[in-house]
Amino acid sequence: MTLPAGTKLGRYEVRSQIGAGGMGEVYLARDPKINRDVAIKVLPANFSSDAERLRRFEQEVQATGKLNHPNILAVYDVDTHDGAPYVVYELLEGESLRERLHNGALPSRKALDFAVQIANGLAAAHAKGIIHRDLKPDNIFITNDQHVKILDFGLAKLVEPISNQDAQTEIATRRVNTDPGAVMGTAGYLSPEQVRGRPVDHRADIFSFGAVLYEMLSGRRAFHGDSAIETLNAILKEDPPELTGSNPNVAPALERVVSHCLEKSPERRFQSATDIAFALESLSGLSTTSQQTAASLSTPAAHVFTRERLLWSAACVILLGIVATLAFSNFSRAQPNTHAAQLALAMPNSVKHVAHVMVSPNGQFIAFVADEGKHEIWVRSLDGTNAQPLPGTDGAYALFWSPDSQYLGYFANEKLYKVDISGGRPQALCDTIEGSGGTWNRDGVILFGGLPGIFRVSAQGGTPTLATKRDPSEEAHRWPYFLPDGRHFVFLGDAPTSENHHIRLGSLDSQETQILFGAITRVAYAPPGYLLYVNQGALVAQPFDAQKLKVTGEPTVLAENITDIGDNHEFDFSVSENGILAFQSGSRKSQLTWFERSGKAVGKVGDPEAMKSIALSPDGQRVLMSMLDADGRPSDIWQMDLARGNKSRLTFDPQSDGDGVWSPEGHRIVFASSRGNSLSHLYLTSDNATGNDQRLTADTDGIPTSWSSDGKYILAMHWANGRGGIWMIGPDINSEAKPLLQSEVFDQIMGVFSPNNHYIAYTSNESGRYELYVQSFPVSGKKWTISSGGGFLPLWRADGRELFYLAPEGKVMSVEVKTDGTFENAAPKQLFQTNILRGEGVPYCVSPDGSRFLIEITAEDSSTPLAVVLNWTARLKHPS
User: Fold this and answer.
1) Rounded to whole angstroms, how far apart are CA atoms 87 and 61?
2) Which residue, 451, 440, 516, 431, is CA-closest to 480?
3) Cystine design at 234: which of 109, 114, 223, 397 (Cβ 3.0–4.6 Å)?
4) Per-residue model confidence (pLDDT) at position 315
5) CB 32 within 8 A of CB 59
6) What's the rounded Cα separation, in Å, for the pair 600 and 616?
7) CB distance 610 to 634 below 8 Å
8) What are the residue numbers of the active site?
9) What angle do CA 529, 532, 537 make, to 5 degrees?
10) What is the pLDDT of residues 404-463, one digit of tens each?
11) Which of these, 605, 608, 638, 645, lies nearest to 852 by C-alpha position?
């Protein structure tokens, strides 16, 4: 029944009716209390027959009223009149999105603008636990000043479940505007879980959002049949036609955002509206930046370009031209291009260094980890001019692509992750002991490297299982790479000695593997039939028959001096399936730098060097440096006088020597060496560089980590059956090594004696992630958990009153402790953030008084331009 003018609804006075529909009638009314016009929707009285449902509805509308978001219709009040509930809203002037779409698709920029506003509104509501349930163009309002307002949050909760064809075809749509009349919606915006009548969460709104965005871009509904049943079946079983079919101006990245929203399974969609907003804002930012750049170029005084920015822009223009030329030649019948083209791409100004460069399988994107104050994944399109970071990927390393070039896999904080490059938060797939590379096939299987062997896990996540069996002469299987059949793969069999390193061939059908050839490097397969790897610093292409699974010819050098970016032979190169090669050349060097406890850098030490691990002498006057050779392997140990900067070599054997630890008096050093084809046995040397090294352990391999202050014991890491343990060794020649902490289930590593030798600090993943623990010594079973949220590489202050460690993402942490009598510890506190990440070595040390930290940081001059080679196979005939 229509309410006449002058009717009082609480304190509100009705002026006129301005709309009506299946969900009630809308009136223009006056609020005399604050002297403003409002809109009031009066719902049918039978909607309040269920008191419990009405109570829930009122609670939700009241919660919506507290949102106070610019993209959500403001709710002022909710009450009942003659048994009928009503809601009081702000009064809007403009038109619904449905009316705007009567003229067809919106321009992409306008659709993007509206979509960002809708996503922001949904994000604000979802953050409060409020779900719309009926998002569609009829419930989205465009004001006269082009602001988007989402209408009618909470009203869908009052509607009875759909139970007949008519209801499925015409779901009542609520509307508040200045024109009379009812607007009816359709079932084409329901999520699959709504169609099936299953419980829904905020991801149902994300599906509906995708349908709305699709319609804004195409001018047609994503799901539309001749009947309600056909429409609902389309939602459940069909994908909408490609957007580019109706609107060729839609960017591929934008179409991927729409497709990601319209996934049938909620788990495969964007997991939050915030992620959608970020993805869309990134696309919008690219467009805006491009326009601003064009305007700047046309107005000389409008913008000042740095030399780096000019080089970046020029390289992108050249790259676009060459890509276009190659694309034309690929699609024409003319003679194919017989020359490779190499470009040097500088990085954006905010990025200091890049690593882990990965070109996508389709050759459209390059991903890398950038150091711009934190280590984070960035992605840039090769047909664009900007790189964009992927939020939430802090600490990422060892990147790899999904076969469809839509996702990136990576490792961080002892976990394997995947992230959609078009937007969305990273998803943890499983825990990892270490992340030595990954590969992803078209059946959704991911392989990744580790100490026990190559692991296999689903791309949807799960518990990893071993896919290879390690040879006794090896220490790990690393850097797997699928061959074209998606069943076989190549990888590095890593070993302590050069002669035992091999590129191996494996299969998903068996844990047995076979040797292809000797090499100490990660490896990649590239069409039409090559294995790319690094040999003595040079990137080479080895002919390989992927059907017969055999090496077929001699390797060809493609580029020299490829950058080694890690301790596990992760040389920085990658290749696409269509002839694009990316790599970095030059040595990655570290600069030893002193930092105060506040994080302020207060001085550099020596020159930039390629090093793995450092250790400060007990008196704080000298530092041991484990140097790396050209292949990224430990070479020899050097010491440096910190006051004078003088450096002297302590070991001279051609085999690998590293991981030195000082004796308590500071005149002897215990270190790990691979001499005599051994598995990192412990050796002793002196600080006077006599070269008279002596083998400490008879038959037990290990890496030293600490020497007790009384000189009686040395702690070393020992690996057994893929698990790290802490062993104790005497300082005498041919001492017997004995297990101190060793488990068959989890790691216990990096043991360090307290200054009074009563306790040992160490790292273990017994809780599911690596945390810091303190264990009484001698071991009595009593221990204390120190860190929460991750911790490794402990160091003690010389007086034993403070314990330091690294938390994930390179945070230096401090814990005040008491070691006299019963052990006590305070809560950890962060001292400062660094750019160092956990590796195999120890990249930091602390002064005896705990006031300063000596840290390996990436040297400023060690960054090299990223090289991109188009049509790289031409170098097989014309290497350069």
Assistant:
1) 8
2) 440
3) 223
4) 47
5) no
6) 20
7) no
8) 134
9) 155
10) 999 999 998 889 999 999 888 899 999 886 788 999 999 999 999 987 899 999 999 999
11) 605
pLDDT at 680: 74
CA diameter of the chain? 106
Encoded tokens for 407:
């996702």
Whole-number pLDDT of residue 610? 80
pLDDT for position 166: 33
Evaluated on CA atoms 171, 172, 173, 178, the torsion sign reads: positive
Mean pLDDT of the chain: 82
Residues with Cβ within 8 Å of 419's Cβ and at least 6 positions away in sequence, in order, are 377, 390, 392, 393, 407, 408, 410, 425, 426, 427
Is the Cβ–Cβ distance between 572 and 563 less than 8 Å?
yes
Q: DSSP letters along 636-651, please? A: EEEEEETTT--EEE--
Strand 530-535 and strand 748-753: the pairing is unpaired
Residue pair 90/36 in contact (Cβ under 8 Å)? The answer is: no
403: tokens are: 């076969």
785-800 pLDDT tens trace: 999 888 989 999 999 9
SS3 711: coil
- Strand ranges inside 495-554, DSSP E: 502-507, 510-517, 523-526, 530-535, 538-545, 550-551
Confidence (pLDDT) at 51: 67
Walk me through the domains of the chain, giving residue ranges and CATH numbers: 8-282 (1.10.510.10), 308-586+864-876 (2.120.10.30), 590-861 (2.120.10.30)
As to burial, measured by CB atoms within 10 angstroms (0-12 exposed, 13-18 middle, 19+ buried), residue 2 is exposed
Question: Per the structure block, which two tokens stand in for 849?
Answer: 């008084």
Predicted TM-score (pTM) of this structure: 0.53
Sign of the CA dihedral running 471, 476, 481, 486: positive
- Residue 348 DSSP code: P
pLDDT of amino acid 286: 36
For 473, the token pair is 């002469």
What pLDDT does 630 receive? 59
**HSE of 553 in the Cβ direction (CA atoms, 13 Å)?**
12
Cβ burial of 309 (10 Å; 0-12, 13-18, 19+) is middle
Distance CA 274, CA 276 (A): 5
Q: Specify the length of the chain in residues.
A: 880
**Nearest residue to 525 via CA among 417, 465, 441, 443:** 441
Phi, psi angle pair for 153, to nearest 5°: -60, 135
- Per cent of the chain over pLDDT 90 is 45
pLDDT computed for residue 164 by the predictor: 34
Q: Give 22: exposed, middle or buried? Use CB within 10 Å, 0-12, 13-18, 19+.
A: middle
What letter would DSSP give residue 592? E
Q: Report the alpha-carbon distance of residue 330 to residue 520 in Å, rounded.
A: 36
Which letter does DSSP use for residue 2 in this model? P
What tens digit of pLDDT does each residue of 335-393 get?
345 577 787 776 666 666 788 899 999 999 999 988 765 678 999 888 766 788 898 99
Question: How many angstroms separate the Cα of 429 from the Cα of each of 138, 482, 830?
Answer: 39, 19, 28
State how far the alpha carbon of 534 is from the alpha carbons of 413, 492, 531, 561, 579, in Å.
Answer: 28, 12, 10, 9, 18
Whole-angstrom Cα distance, residue 872 to residue 880? 11
Weakly modelled stretches of the chain, pLDDT under 50 = 156-185, 285-336, 878-880
DSSP letter assigned to residue 828? -
| SS3 label, residue 734 | coil
Q: Write down the H helix ranges in 198-300.
A: 202-218, 228-237, 243-246, 252-261, 273-298
- The 3-state DSSP class for residue 144 equals coil
Planar angle of CA 156, 159, 164, nearest 5 degrees: 120
**Which residue is associated with the tokens 């938390």?**
807
